[in-house]
Hints:
The structure holds 2 protein chains of 2 kinds. By secondary structure, chain A is an alpha/beta fold. Helix content of chain A is 31%, strand content 14%. The mean pLDDT of chain A is 88. Chain B is of the alpha/beta class. Chain B has 18 helices and 19 strands. In chain B, the strands form 5 sheets. An 8-stranded parallel sheet of chain B has the order 7-17-16-14-13-10-9-8. In chain B, strands 2-1-3 form a 3-stranded antiparallel sheet. In chain B, β18 and β19 (509-511) form a beta hairpin. In chain B, α6 packs across α17, α8 crosses α17 and α12 crosses α14 (374-387). The model of chain B has no long low-confidence stretch (mean pLDDT 88). Chains A and B meet through α2, β2, β3, β4 and α14 of A and β2, α5, α12, β15 and α13 of B. β3 (115-116) of chain A pairs antiparallel with β15 (362-363) of chain B.
Amino acid sequence: MGTMFERYQIEVEETLAKIQLPPKFLIQRYNNCTNVQECAQVCIFDVHKTGENSHKLMDPINELCRGCHQCVLACPKDAISLRINPEFENIGNTYFTPDRIKTLYFEADTGRVPVSGTGYKGTFVGTGFDRIWFDFSEIVRPTRDGIHGREYISTSVDLGRTLPYLQFDNNGNLVSEVPQVIEISIPMILDAPLPSKTRKPLQLALAKAATRLNTFVMVNAKDYFDELSPYHAHLIPRIVPDEIDDYENLINISRIIELDFSNNDIIDSLKRIKETHKSVLVSTRFPYDDQSGERAVALSKQGADIIHFYMTDDVIEQTPNRIKDVIQVTHSHLVEHHLRDGVTLISGGGIAEAAHVPKSIILGADAVSVGLAYQIVLGCRVCYGDNHSINCLLQIEPPDIEWAAQRIVNLIASWRDQQLEVLGGMGIREVRRQRGELGRAMFYEDLEAKIFGEQE
Amino acid sequence: MMQKQLMFQSPEVKTTPPKYSTTITKYEVLLDRAKCNICGICLETCPEYLGSTPLDYEAFATPEGYLRLSNPTASCLGPSCKRCVRVCPTDALSVEINPHYLALGDSRWTADLLLSTWEQAATGKLTNDYEYRIGMSGGGFDKLRFGFELNEATLEIDDRYDDLCLDTSIVLNKRMDGRPKIEIPIPVYGADMSYGSISLNIMRARAMAAKAWNTFTSTGEGGYPDEIIPYKDHIITQVATGHFGVNAETIKRAPIIVLKYAQGAKPGLGGHLLADKVTPEVAKIREVVPYISLFSPFPFHNVYSVEDHYRHVQLMKDINPRALVSVKVSTPIDVNMVAIGSYYATANILQIDGGHGGTGAAPDIAKKNIAMPIEYAIPLVHNYLVSEGVRDEMVILASGGIRTAFDVAKIIALGADGAVIGTSELIGLSCKRCENCERGRGCPSGIATTDPILMHLVQPEWGAQRIINLYHSWKRQWHYILTQLELENIQELRPKDEIKFKHGKCNHLIHLDYKR
Lengths: 456, 516
């Protein structure tokens, strides 16, 4: 008897942030206010209210304001000023913008897909992934996958390598040694947390979240501690090559380990582990550079099951446009060498919103690793690890583990639902088939050159 | 054709001020109460009599804090004037950019565009106080200029341009199929917005304005309320995948039928009306259960090929032998193939809806990331149909992110015949783009709401006049553009041949990034 089919479902639950983001809008009443309360009449968001036992207006509740300007216009004394809160504008950085962080908070609070009215308010084109538009050509190529078929769209991906072909002997018996693959239910892996005083509870929360999501979380081997052991099936210990002997036990209980880029002996370590631990998948982690394509080919030939390329968050902030090129180049290089299915490509860096997951995949990654985004919803103020600013919540107070795990689960659940919308609109039934589907993307540079550029 | 256009009398402009006590001005004069000694010199020197409203003694009674000097009928001239600041003996005054001006708008619809659209809707006139042509999105329309715009810093567009003998009309049927050659005197009509996504009052306002301008508005996919039947000759009805409130009767009533295959703001996702907005009235007309979220499924499950598409168009033509059929599609990468398919499916009008369009509710991921901007899609389609030799049999209308009269002219110069306008009309009705349209009580301006109280914020007559005024100002701007380009007819603005930019220039247009 086979196992019962269980539909993959993520349980979301409203889990509000301990400290909310500063409100986007600030409302101030000048002294001209004569308490005529027109503002209280017109505001449908209850920003302006009178006290319970008084007829005097209370201070405006900025948290509820949606910036509709109705009170400003209705005030007969012109006594209201509505401004963008400078404190709100100061959160994040140029890549993790205040609006992006606000969206991340909504997703982590509720686990829902952000929906709103009116058109897109941003610029014509942005940086990095925002120079790509999706192509939803259901008109031209309808596939009957529609929105009502969403529950049948798969977001599972396989970690590991597959053989280009199978070999059989004269009796028809399989000769090839078929490598093991591990299926995860979402094309997202949680990266190890940045250094902070509260890393232990954070790592526990991540392990819980990864288990519930049926994916993996990285843990630096030197930071491993025993309370993590119940979750070892969803942990990827990250080990520096020279230290693999120190972590023999950890490697033994793991399904996947990751060798971190340090010096040239990564290939030797890779070979040694492959020999001594046949059932462990080995991932190798490198920063993206100009040689990423060649490196991927070399590593794949040496038996790496997974290649995890990443770009650190500060590099992303400085050169946001590079990430989309390096993913594409690395993927194409593997394709040209007929090795694309010989290795799993995980891309890390720059994943700041839901759309970046399908975009990374369209550019050629099998899955992405999510780092800074989940730290932000737990209170990180985007200061890049080592020199935490004073107001970083992760630094001050260890997070409640269950609370943190649920917020991470909510965030990822929302991203998965948005990925489903994208797959549904593209008429693609499973995320594996979205990989490298450049035909489902439109590039700003291409369109601009085609229409407005120099013509023959 | 010219004759007919000249016979059309533009509806009269009537000043229709907003129903607010104050306006949003670009600058504010702030008074530091702690420094002010109430001498009143500032009021005397102000050329706009800014503080001429009776002194607010109650406010002045507080000896500290800030007061804003204001007069609801005037606005501060800004840093170029600053007379009050100079004459103040105690340095109590400062002129600043108004914080709520800075908090208004976004990069596509800047505060200036909103304020100028409100101004045009109120008075039918244009002033140079605001940038009324472009936004700050940094691409597309906002980087395109007509050649004459580069020579002239400020354009003087006044009533001299009203009575010129210029033709801004377009014909909505170019096929020899025996169906009516419907002509509209302005190259725009109103976009599809359903009952439920907007209130009945707004639908009536738009219908009345469409009748006055002898153009069209559309019911969207949400039924055809009886209250707008008196305007039926100016109302397009939409047949979309949910078939909400669609029946043979509504199809027979309409002079133009839109088959909506996709919408630019959320292509491939279908319409979306959140549960809160499905009030019993909305549910009745849509023939559904109240307070349940409504998704229009996608795609049309009877259309999986060009042949299916042909039969679909024919079905509409069979039901209503007098109607034109418009096909509304979004902008995938091969939008040109869609266009040629619709040509062979005998559509009269092809409405191409770009990614920057508005919507009552859509996932943010869709609004931001999906579909090609209309500025790319129109040249692609135009060029392809020209090369196939069928461009002159199709009417191509652009929609999705067309905000101003200049945007309309630019998209015509890029190859469209005209445009379909949604958001701009709602801005004219004092929408502020606060992004709450999806909510139940929804709209603070009483536009995108089904709330029985909020909907009364907009009265149909008031709203209709605002839209009439807006188009009056737009028409004046088109006259101005035609005059500058030495054209007599807006149809001449549309290129006959393929659009090919060279050194950033093509067909009167200049793209600032490629200009050489």
